[in-house]
User: Fold these one by one.
Assistant:
Number 1:
Amino acid sequence: MTPLLAQTEAASGSAEFWVFIVIGAVALGSALSMVLLRNAVHAALMLVVNFFAIAVLYATLDAQFLAVAQIIVYAGAIVVLFLFVLMLLGVAGDQAFTGRIAGQKTTAVLLGLALFGVLAAGVAAPFLGEGTACNVPVEQRVDAEGPLCEGLAVANADGNVRGVGFLIFTDYVWPFEVTSVLLVVAAIGAIVLGKRREDPGELTDAPASAVPALRDDDDDEAASDEDAAEPAAAGASEDDEEGTR
Amino acid sequence: MTDLASDPTTVDLFALAPELSVVVAALLILLVELALTGERKRYVNLIGLVGVVAALAFTVALWADIGDGARAAFGNAFVVDAYALLFKGLFLSVALFVLLLSYRYFSEFRTYQGEYYVLLLGSFVGMMLMVSARDLVMLFVALELVSIPGFVMAGLRKFDLRSNEGALKFFVMGVLSAAILLFGMSVVYGVTGTTDLAGIAVALETGERLPLLLAAVLFVIVGFGFKISAVPFHFWAPDTYQGSPVPVTAFLSVASKAAGFAGLLQVTFVAFAPLADVWAPVLGVLAILTMSLGNLLALQQTNVVRLLAYSSIAHAGYMLVPFGVATATDAALNSDAFRAVLIYLIAYAVMNSGAFAAVTAVTRSQPSRLVADYAGLGRRSPGLAAALSIFLLSLGGVPPLVGIWAKFFVFSVAVEAGTAFGLVLAAAVVLNTVVAMFYYLAVVRTMWMDEPTVEEPVAPGKALGFAVGGLAVLTVVLFLGIGVFTDVAGVSTLVASG
């Protein structure tokens, strides 16, 4: 009997096992319906279900912090934002994707299945052979396997929330701080892209000479006012700006 | 690597000074722009320039300070060594150049000036953090800090459908590859139990080669392959380059690409070094595909920006060649391969920046950006035409310009490997160099031989003229002075220690 089967048999009596079976099915089903549903709002709602299911899986794995963060951040904030955007833009019932390349859909499905096969085999492989990967409880493990299987027990020794917090503010404090710069930049970018200009005239890169402007004579601007036309690519006009609104 | 601070919360402000000065400049711009009105908003450019120059000064000071050693902060998450400083110097010089290029463009563009400079500087901070990162998490955060402002800057010309298209393609491809990269990284962490690059190498050396791990390594390579626009992850590049404001295109094709290569160097030559026999052939094949496809498609372009876009894809291919010959055992060969990539990046940054600067100058009077617009440029503006010829010939690899050294080091490391695959790669480089000469020379011929369609000379303005002239001189001078970079002690310390 392979270790995987042995483990499964040992676990099959526990509540955790049944929770996994049920929630795993829910997660899988909601993920599939999210991809297959044609109505964008329904798909977004399925995404919420999926996020909740994943959160439950995290909780059964003793990662309470991650479970709560998953619900608050993903299910709570991000998907609700999706829904807001979808509702604001209005949903036109059937917005099916139609591929232009012949056989695109079939190829995509086949390649997707192939990738799934490779990954599934890859994930399962360490558990299928004798004595591979983390099939021995942490206490009984000889050190030879090194950092390969330090295990959840070690990470959660002081409690899950404390462990995560400790890591964020020690080992990963620098990436954590840099993320704040990233968020500032991303917020600025979102504002730039999302903002509507009050004055559409400002939104062309028309020749500066065509726009009333006060000019300083002491810099290189004075060199060539006539030549100041910027690359206004085809179709760059006020009409396009109106059209995109 | 010298002894690094074991406490991950140690802060070394001096080591962080270059990044901090750029961040401070970016935040100042945001504040000051509020107070300025109308035309005066363009002076925020100067704040950016001061910040970047200060960062360059700190980089030089750090270079003098560390000697052959290294400084570190936050444990291993931020390391300042010769490799990091060399790249920081490169990025900051490119930042200086892009700021010069942007000054006039965005003062005429008249909108989102402050935001543009903040995004630009934010992206450069990401690059500088990336080359100092010795940790997967930090590498990922830095990569996102490079990419996300890029998406927005590519879409800044909101009224232009082409810009919208380019930005959207860039964004979708970027997010997809980031997701793949992150998935790969999480598996690597799961298998090795550490996010530290050197630690991963140790774990990989001793651990078993799980199939999943090999897939994860490929995922990580895909993530960076997007950033360097290697075939088959290159689809976004031509459209994005064409739609973006020209200074942003210069930024994307030089700085952003160099950052991608820096990340790839760190991941492959340090973390995944023991698996070189897995990733080297993959990257080698990608190298051949990238340079061949890039050059063949460039042959058919009539738009100068698209031509340069495909040429920059082809150059990414040349730069991937040294990756293709890396091995898990031969440290000397790896060190040479590493150096070849570095030299190529430096040379490429100089000549490609120059080409984009010259193109910016011409598009000012002829916005259509067609190759035909360059007819008779030699008669209209001999200086500009000469400079552009220098850049194009250097990109093609003609002596006595710096481009030949870039190709030489790549070629010699491919031959040095001594394997059949190495020789195939070397042959591909030679063949592609010949093909590439066709389209570079075609533009040069148009400039000097054809009758001009318009008579008036091109007036690039002071900032742009200075950038073009300076880079042209640098392209020639670096041909003689490339030894400065080949002899830099400890440039390859990263490989040696990994």
Number 2:
Amino acid sequence: MLCEICKKRPVAIAFTQVINNKKTQLAVCMKCAEEKGITNPLAGLPEVFGKIVANILGEELMLGASEISKKASGRCCPKCNTSLNKFEKTGLLGCDECYHFFEKELAMLLRRIHGSNKHIGSRPRPRRIISSAKDLVKLRAELAQAISKEKFERAAELRDLLRDAEREANGKNSDRGRKA
Amino acid sequence: MPSDRPLEFSKTTAKNLNALTKRLPHWLGNNAPHANIIISTRVRLARNLAGYKFPRTAESGELYEVIREVYSAIAPSRQLGDSIFLDMLRLAKLERKFLVERRLISPPFAAAENPAMLVVGENEYLSVMVNEEDHLRVQSIQPGLNVEEAWQQIAQLDDELGESLDYAFTDQFGYLTACPTNTGTGMRVSLFVHLPALAILEEIEKVMKKLTPAEITVRGFYGEGTEVVGNIFQISNQLTLGRTDDNIVKRMEEVGQKLVSLEDDARERLLEAQPVDLHDKVYRAAGILKYARTLSSLELLNLLSYLRLGSDLGIFKNIDRSFLNELMVTLQPAHIQKAYREMDDDRQRDVQRAHVVREKIAELF
């Protein structure tokens, strides 16, 4: 299959969008994708692509990395037996272990879909780190410092801690889930 | 095998479903913020249990284990209060369709042939599908534009369930879901919006493009892959990873506010530019509703859209919004069929629908 833009090079990435029940698909080569800025879903052509579903095999071609070879698509998750080939067809992973087994591929795919592959949202309650009010003040100060020194990774971690603590505090003060 | 034991709530499934058909969901309510344009707000969370295969891969025995685990976590829940439990395998096609119309389950869940459970909380604000694409799909519905309230309610339930259920979660990827488009927060906020003026002015596409389409998706009446009817659109966030829950809540609240102001503006322009045509549309809709002898559900939704617009613009003074919402929900095909048993073909249902509408509307004009 040839790229729909240049009609010369082979397809490396396919996109699908569904708006108002109309499905639009676009398959392009690596070069055109780069030229149009489609490789980063948040830059480039957001007005054209509402939903971006990346094709994992396309991603491999793009990287040209030897460690993720075409053979990888036949590898199966040891727990549920789902292969990348199957995942590509159904769009569904088989179990939580798939996330571990296909970690590299998924890290790329998730970045492609969401523009990020690092979770910064809330955590299940038993995994939250609860801090005292005093610690919170300290954390906030450290966060401000991390931001001013442009230590963004540390800042993100601190924000996570603060958010957990705040959600915990909200939960405790509420009655049947409603904010007091 | 322990999984072959019958589920303890199976026997009461039929009774519970009937109870559901005899009452109305509370999210049809009247006095919600921006309820003239935003009919309802829904937040849903996708969650899976660690150690079990995801529902589409798992075998029957494993799916029963998941149901039992979730059942024992939910049964004592404070958040879900007087909830009812439905064994999906005990429900016929019609009853499943009823639940789709009621916005309690998704069309794929309605087609399920594997062990699955639906939990419906008091007044239908909260519900949980078990063994849909993920082990849990928890949803929270509020009337009007109210992302914050819907989020608060679901977050409390999620916290409560997270105490007794071991959710599949990693620090790197967050909540692990069957489809990578839900990974991370597993959170989808959907606004159910009525945009008749923008539709009449043919500005929907322009407006949707403006709303940064990389993170927003527009769907039809019953969700993914369904048609737009009655000028009602479902607007949802697309991205779930690398964003905090609060960000998504705030962002969708903003999107809602923006849509409200764009539709308000369109209504003003429409009223100014085409007052006669607009009144004509609205009064014709009222006329058909008042006198028609057959009404398909599609036609009803389209006419109700104009009646709703007329009511919002003050052309009709005495129409309750909850009344319009009630007609919208209770006159869908499976709802009619559940309420009037003999109605098993479209024609009979269309006649019955027109009859009910005439009776109800007679009180208004």
